[in-house]
Amino acid sequence: MSLRYDVDAVVLDIEGTTSATGFVVDVLYPYSRSRFAALLTEGGDNPEVARAVAQVRELTGDPDADAVQIEKTLGTWLDEDRKATPLKTLQGIIWSEGFARGDLVSHFYDDVVPALRVWHSAGLRLYVYSSGSVAAQRAWFTSSPEGDLLPLVSGLYDTENAGPKQEPESYRRIAAATGTEPSRLLFLSDRPGELDAAVAAGWHAVGVRRPGEPYFEQGVGDHASAGAFDEIGITSSRSTT
Fold first, then answer.
1. Do 50 and 57 meet the contact criterion of CB atoms below 8 Å apart?
2. Which is nearest to 230 in space by CA: 109, 106, 137?
3. CA distance 150 to 239
4. How far apart are CA 13 and CA 117, in angstroms?
5. Residue 237 has pLDDT above 80, yes or no
6. Alpha helix stretches (DSSP H) within 35-185
């Protein structure tokens, strides 16, 4: 192992880090796009849907936008890969239903699940911080090819309960919420701006660089980098891996 860290918890990004961005873009995005209309017309009694619809109207400055207009906005945001909270909320609801029905099975790189099991067994706490909603994260980890991985995870964070991923304050919120000193947290992500924000908040950070991922050629700036999770060794106050 080329990297070693003395921490108590690891916080994981999903796209490009634990899992292929291509799977999200090529499988999950079209799945949600095809179901936005039905959710908007049939999910009116769902408070999460109602809240997301209100947020879309607020963000677009159109308080009277109907379901057709909102669906069009969601499609545009999807094309732009915007990390808009209401888009992620509605996607999360749709994906959760898809995973529950067995329409969808999530993707993890081969090196990820073994590392997560080792780290968890060694007493490390594992958290997720993704632009995808908490609902989507929960469904993702519950419906992996290797079964339910959610018991390995101590908490889930998104842009709603933590904040934007390129702002240091979001990482300070997560540290406070988990009761962990910033210097005892390690963040794994493929995006330089997110790594910068984590380090600015006092965390350790490793850039995960996987060939074929959108940020691979860009690199991770001055941050340490790893091509796979098994290149990262962790020494905690409880155990050594």
1. no
2. 109
3. 22
4. 17
5. no
6. 36-42, 47-60, 67-80, 85-101, 112-121, 134-142, 168-178
Tokens 């860290």 locate to 5
pLDDT (mean) for 85-95: 93
pLDDT in tens, 133-174: 898 999 999 999 999 999 999 999 999 999 999 999 999 999
C-alpha to C-alpha distance for 5 and 188, rounded to whole angstroms = 12
From 118, 117, 105, 114, select the one nearest 144 (Cα to Cα).
105
Distance in angstroms (rounded) separating the CA atoms of residues 120 and 160:
26
Residue pair 210/23 in contact by the 8 Å Cβ criterion: no
Residues constituting the chain: 241
Q: To the nearest 10°, the Cα dihedral for 70, 140, 138, 92?
A: 0
Q: What's the pTM?
A: 0.86
